[in-house]
Amino acid sequence: MAADNSHAAGSRCNVIQVAQQARQSSQRLAASSGESRRAALLAVAAQLRRRCGEIVAANQQDCRRAEQQRLSTPLLKRLRLEPAGVEKLCQAIEELAHRPDPLNQKLESRQLDQHLILHRRTVPIGVIGFIFESRPDALIQIVSLALKSANCAILKGGSEAQATNSRLVQIIGEAAAQVKEIPAHWLALLPDRQAVQELLQLEDYIDLVIPRGSNQFVQHIMRHSNIPVLGHADGICHLYIDREVDSQMAQRLAIDGKCQYVAVCNALETILLHRTIAPKLLPQLVGALQERGVETRGCEQCRSLMPKLAAATEEDWRTEYLNTVVALRIVQNLEAAIAHINHYGSHHTDAIVSSNRERANFFMQRVDSASVIHNASTRFADGYRYGLGAEVGIATGKLHARGPVGLAGLLSYKWYLYGSGEVVADYVGQAARPFLHRDLKDE
Amino acid sequence: MAADNSHAAGSRCNVIQVAQQARQSSQRLAASSGESRRAALLAVAAQLRRRCGEIVAANQQDCRRAEQQRLSTPLLKRLRLEPAGVEKLCQAIEELAHRPDPLNQKLESRQLDQHLILHRRTVPIGVIGFIFESRPDALIQIVSLALKSANCAILKGGSEAQATNSRLVQIIGEAAAQVKEIPAHWLALLPDRQAVQELLQLEDYIDLVIPRGSNQFVQHIMRHSNIPVLGHADGICHLYIDREVDSQMAQRLAIDGKCQYVAVCNALETILLHRTIAPKLLPQLVGALQERGVETRGCEQCRSLMPKLAAATEEDWRTEYLNTVVALRIVQNLEAAIAHINHYGSHHTDAIVSSNRERANFFMQRVDSASVIHNASTRFADGYRYGLGAEVGIATGKLHARGPVGLAGLLSYKWYLYGSGEVVADYVGQAARPFLHRDLKDE
Hints:
The structure is a homodimer. Chain A contains 16 helices and 17 strands. Chain A has helices at 2-11, 15-30, 34-50, 52-68, 73-79, 83-97, 136-148, 162-177, 193-199, 215-224, 247-259, 278-291, 300-305, 314-317, 334-344, 357-366, and strands at residues 106-113, 116-124, 127-131, 152-156, 187-189, 208-211, 237-241, 268-274, 295-298, 310-311, 325-331, 349-353, 371-376, 393-395, 403-405, 411-422, 438-439. In chain A, helix 3 (34-50) packs across helix 8. The interface between A and B is large, with 68 and 68 residues.
């Protein structure tokens, strides 16, 4: 049934209808048992495996078109889905299926009075709009997290992956629909950006939008949405090299942060160096980075040590390169490093390399970012590496979920109060009955 | 120092400066010890007690002006602050002061690899704009929750309470500033709605806005804010009376929900009755409500049983009365009650009265509201009654915090990763080092 949706969407999409149907489905999906959602995920994995040939064929179609349109090699690489990749995704879905049901978990329980019991329990958010880039594996991660957490998903993937994505949504929708408690219309694929624009206005039906993609695109969505948005626009990440430091480690973290994968949000933009170690460390560091093809730009103080270094401007401190460029700045002290990061950074991921644990803690407490790291690469800030299983994105806001967002970020909660006829009138005024307010441990 | 702010605000307020100063203070306040914030709260309580005379005098000034302006009696009652009231507030502040520090609590801990340890710890949200109605006790609740959770607070209270509020902010600011780690400018009071308009645009400095007040006012803020808003516009609450029911209990819950306090968000708007019990229960219920001065409006089916009943229109189902009016509707079954509530309600608080626990659970799971209640009054949905200590408001959205919002709703979290030089390059590719991903229990 969901597949019908995505097909209808292929011609001319009635976004309001898609959103209304998802809203209606969301109440049934929220009431589904963990067992049904587990069975649905297993059915999805089985069908993806069985129909792997169709998926790969659709993906080849996308890849051919992308080659004709001369997409860059890294983008082409991210677009391609081969049988081994499908198998790996199926295994990840199965692993997720067997995790405990995240719904109806008691977050707190309290006895308000003898027969008045309060529970706060996890529930799904409802209907989530996911807008992401070309990678078809992102679609599968997102959809399986949504299904596990009983959220309805309205998707818009990259247009380069359209054939792959629409085949995936069809197969997933058909597989899940075999399971009794899974409603039709819990999953839909939007055809184009115009449909996304319409979706962003439908706050009555959509609870949350999670966009992944270019800075400009995410900013555009944040500005134009009536619906809460979870995600990040910029990923301006810093490594601060402190005065007491293992130089080898500093260099290793700088190179991993900058070079291991440049096109991602948790890669390094700016390296800050404590003034006392800069004379020794800066030349080594610049040499090592340039050796790996990185363009280095330095502040005035850096250039007084290395006059041949290109000049970094104010603009550099604010730029997410997503490329083999790095900015270098010498700072007077730890406080100046923190001030630079809080001023120019994007509250995403920032690291300190220091042999002094106390100074590291000072840095980590004061840097106002979702992830703060001591003596490790910023590239670790990721849902898979953090052990969340998978992620739907990384959030730099402070509300709801922050940093890598996995299953837990797709949940809300609800207060359940069970009484036996209690009225508030008995608990107010002169002869007010007192509340018990006794916290209940797991019972 | 904060008091200076509020005074400057009295003449012509530089909202950007107030917001920037709060943002700067927020990093220092976030790094303050729990002990300092405890001491600051105790100092605040001591000063409020000592300067009670000034507060009551300022309040009398507000009350005289309100009487001249012919404010309604309930509003006047909510505005008035007497010595006994101040004492009660001081005791509540002291109780809050002695609660455990909510910051730096480990929410999860995971060993990613031998020497790579991840913690997720609570942190404050940062700078919060609180916009509320006249009640001076709301100011004290809000400010003390903000201080306990290390959030900077920019306030705008009702103009009727201006003298009281500005005296309270002055005393609280001066008292807290005596404590070493508490920064100046963590607290400010805005003078007027124009200043609020300006504040709503300052998303670089303000992390969250929590408005309390009339439906229209909150909706206006939600529409015009670039900053995330936590709260609710409507409180359209329902009581559904099921087919198997203790009639006395049903009547008691209806009367408490409607009459105990009409001007509040968790009071009843609509009572739904299962068709099989309506012939017997409706006349009793209408009689009991009318006896208490409640205007009753019924659906067509109600009027076929009681022809003299005034007619409820479609508009009634969507209206928050905040007054002694109630709408009554007969529904075919449990599902129809749920459908009515999810369609017309505001996802705030809805109750079922039923002798059948299974049917109650069906209702509670499917009604998409922040609080769902079985056999108790909707009026219990409140931070104090739920045992949260105090509340800054009630949220009907599903993100971040839902229902009554207490201390926990004023927290965010941050990921702390501690390594020993680990780089991501070692964990990818053919010879990838595997992650350990071992959850750590409290250590």
